[in-house]
Design brief:
- The protein is globular, with a radius of gyration of 16 Å.
- It has about 180 residues and is mainly alpha-helical.
- It contains 7 helices and no strands.
Length: about 180
């Protein structure tokens, strides 16, 4: 893929992830009582990018999505921005690592769940440091329990998209 094509695709993926992030903010989740808990729809794009393009492109999409979301949402450089960015970057790194190390023995759903766990653990670790309080760790069991269904949901959707993606076969053979 040429440099221009890669840049264009990354731009489209960042825009798509940003739209999914914004749409998700509009979805009321009355059954979830844990502050900050979300479905993680933008992670569909991160996982797709990990599986079809590679680590540097996936990190670019994850970082630029959180940067754009912070700038447009008015949260740039506040606690929420740092939580979002750290969770996105860490989960992207772990999803890439799990996907590559497992060499196909772990499904896209498993890769997604590992990313969801990492996202939540990273956010709590960063919140503990930024807020200088161990009290936020109270949410750990709740967020880890929620990571399973949200990770499965994201993994199933991303898996369907990846299966029909023309880039899938190109990236899998070029690992």
């Amino acid at each position: 893929m040429s440099r221009v094509n890669t840049l264009t695709k990354i731009s489209i993926l960042v825009a798509l992830a940003s739209v999914l992030h914004a749409v998700e903010a509009l979805i009321p989740l009355p059954f979830i009582v844990v502050p900050g808990a979300k479905l993680g729809l933008a992670n569909i794009v991160a996982l797709y990018t990990v599986e079809t393009m590679g680590l540097s492109q996936a990190l670019a999409v994850s970082f630029l999505r959180t940067l754009l979301g912070g700038l447009l949402g008015g949260t740039f450089l506040n606690v929420g921005y740092y939580l979002s960015t750290s969770g996105a970057i860490a989960s992207t790194l772990v999803m890439y690592g799990v996907s590559r190390i497992s060499q196909g023995r772990i499904s896209v759903v498993g890769v997604s769940v590992s990313g969801a766990f990492t996202h939540n653990l990273t956010q709590l670790a960063v919140a503990t440091v930024l807020l200088r309080s161990l009290g936020v760790l109270f949410y750990l069991p709740y967020l880890l329990v929620l990571a399973v269904p949200t990770g499965v949901f994201v993994g199933l959707l991303a898996g369907r998209i990846i299966r029909i993606s023309p880039e899938r076969s190109q990236n899998r053979s070029g690992r």
